[in-house]
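Hi X.,

You mentioned you wanted examples for the new student's onboarding notes, showing what a folding record looks like when two proteins sit in one file. Here is a clean example. The first protein comes first, with its sequence line followed by its structure tokens.
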Amino acid sequence: MRLSLILLLSLAYITGACQTKSDSKRDDSSYPIQKTDEEWKKILSDEQFYILRQQGTEYAFSGAYWDNKKKGTYYSAATGQPLFSSEHKYKSGTGWPSFYKPIDENAVKEIVDKSHGMVRTEVVDSGSGSHLGHVFNDGPAPTGLRYCMNSASLIFVADGEELPAIVEEWKDNHGE
């Protein structure tokens, strides 16, 4: 009984640590891709808009990629920008896809997040400033980091699969 209570409280803490919905609007004017809320709503699902543009989150163990074991690349659902490789994904036990590093150090930006009475580090894509999740200092070697991402903020493309139009557009516009 005591162990069950400890496990339940630990899961509640982990869930709260990865969840967020910021109460303040961030200035996204420094990012190369600029869209109005109406433009974002045309290309994103309601859930994606909530997570990517309003700093929301999905419930633990509910996203499409938390337990994905396929080899491939994870792209921003907002921009098609490459963000994470399956080579750097690991099972963190938190219920969200977790990576120990981004595909490229310039793929994401980290922002201090002081919402919900705690200080965390928010992770956004560097193309549009869209919210992806948070990064924590409790990950595995070699970095010791855990990039705790929302599945809805990502598009996964398995090795050998055709790239979706949004990814092709990113590649065309960025010489990749």
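Then the second protein repeats the pattern, sequence line and then tokens:
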Amino acid sequence: MMKQQEINVTIRRAKKEDMAQVYKMIRALAEFEKLEHTMTLDAVTLEKDGFESENPAFTCLVAELSDGYIVGYALYYTSYSTWLGRSIFLEDLYVQPAYRKNGIGTQLFLAVAKIAHETSSKRMDFHVLSWNPAGDFYKRLGAVDMTVHEKWHQFRMDETCLNRLFSPDPNIS
């Protein structure tokens, strides 16, 4: 594996034409998290949602090698806390396995944190699976595990649940 000083990347805002490479990494992340069976997103939707709308659903940063090859990404969006105000939610941070342990993930994470800071965001939120060793890295940077610290539990209603709630069929409950 290459040493950290041997890998020079540029962290920059993604462009629509980067989404094919980013999409492949999103698939790889889903596989890494053992959740690929839940992924229904395709590259076309990713491009549309991030680049073909007056109000893009997300912003994406990429870590790019000098030859244009993208080795990592961070995808985030603006959220809002009714207690604090503007916030950023980091949805994904991923570096391809061959390029890990070279500081690229740190660069991506700090780039998003800097954006949060410069936009006067009051916090930056993100999820980490309990088994992912990245949790220790985030704690070393000062992040707080909200499940432990404030006893917050995250809930989700998936598409099936939403469809069931608003189904015109009165027999579905």
